[in-house]
Amino acid sequence: MKIDVHCHVAKRANRASRGWTNADLIEAADKLGIDKLLCSTPVSRGQPTMKMVRECNDITYEAMKEYPDRILGYAFVNPGYFTEAIEEVERCINELGMIGIKLYNQYRADEPVVLPLIRKAAEMQVPVLWHAGHPPSPEEALRWGQPRISDGVHIAALARKVPDAILINGHIGGGGDWEWSIKALKNVPNVYVDTSGSVVDEGIVEMCVKYLGAERVLFGTDLSMEAGVGKILGADLTDEQRELIFWKNIDGILRRRKV
Amino acid sequence: MIIDASTYIGHWPFRRLRHNTAEGLISLMDRNGIDKAVVSSINAVFYKNCQEGNEELAEEIEPYRDRLIPFATLNPKYVAWREDLERCVEDLGMRGLRLYPVYHKYGLLERESSELLREAARMRLPVELPVTLVDPRQHHWLDVDTGLPLNQVLEAADRYRENVFIILNAKTVSPIIERKGAAAPPRNVYVEMSRLSAVLNKSIQAVISRLGVERVVFGTGMPFHYAKPALLKMEILDIKEEEKEAIYWKNMAELLGLQGG
Fold it and tell me: What would be the CATH architecture of the domain defined by B3-256?
């Protein structure tokens, strides 16, 4: 069994097609033995309005309906909309059946603006998957067009403020200094990391397990499908650890939901 | 049979690598069912005098000559590269070159490069060009922060028709796929597939379609990278078995002049 905790559907809001369909995504998942894909449709640049956010979530919902046994959805929101963002989370989770929240780079995890939303997520006991990375320098973060990207330090700070929140540091293999973020998250038990991203550096999964314990490591692809599966299969892990990472940990997280 | 076109041994200054000795590399190859591997010295990238890294490499792989195929790292802007090249080929049994224009701060189209490439062509040595060694998004503050532009490689391949260029570790291949003016990419360019994809954007299939299956080679990037992702890509790649064989080893064996692999 494999559950991909960090994935995306084919369509994007206001952006060109990725060049493949949800059927292609499911075909890829089948080839790699991935049973379920936890997907979102985020806006990756700028401050999306509530209208854009709702469009994104409707795109995710369409894919959920297309493949109800395979695709699960995260509600993407812009925390800057406070009450409206929380209402959108409630719509997505209570009405559309989504399983968690996806946050991108609109605000950094240690900014106070995110607290009402994270407290709501903690109350609902739904996971919050945070687009994350540690660029080599602030200038480089600007070049990436992501001055407010969060890293392990920022997510750890938030996790300490809301200790009952379930936070996921997204794509530890998505570029950026993964050693930095893993070290920053060592003593923060309510933060998980997902191993997604195109980076397949030998030792990355082992370092996650060494610092965080296999119980806090989650398998993901972020559409780097073979890299995602391959790094877990290739890492020095026990069968039990591999099972935890591939699906048991996220299964346990999803069972905690109070919705 | 599997031949890995892209492996390394030596010390990487910016992160602790595991299995980065000849013995360690062999253990990774055994674990992943890889029979032979092209290998070069990481140390040679950082020594001003690359040749010392080549000497270390030759010494270290001596017990594993039947499985490890050494490639020389040379800097055409550093003194006495001609003597070093001769020594690498004649005395140390090196079968090709691995060049690092970005690390050694030169362009493939510069005069010094053309002299080295002319010698490589004369000696029938394939030239491997790692686009990056690590993902530039995570580069150390003392490391280079860009990769080798594929357009420069294509231009060089156009100019130096007698050479064989093997592109390693490329994550995107759009300059090859979408070459301007619909001009076919030069016939002397090969692509190692470890960072490409067999699903969704299917960049491996796109390269096969543009260059032909005979110009794609298998690689892993060990010990920088896990081998399994590249192996998985090959496993699920939707091409014929004989085409897979070509990628797994036949294409590289031919370039290296290996009899029956």
Answer: Alpha-Beta Barrel (3.20)
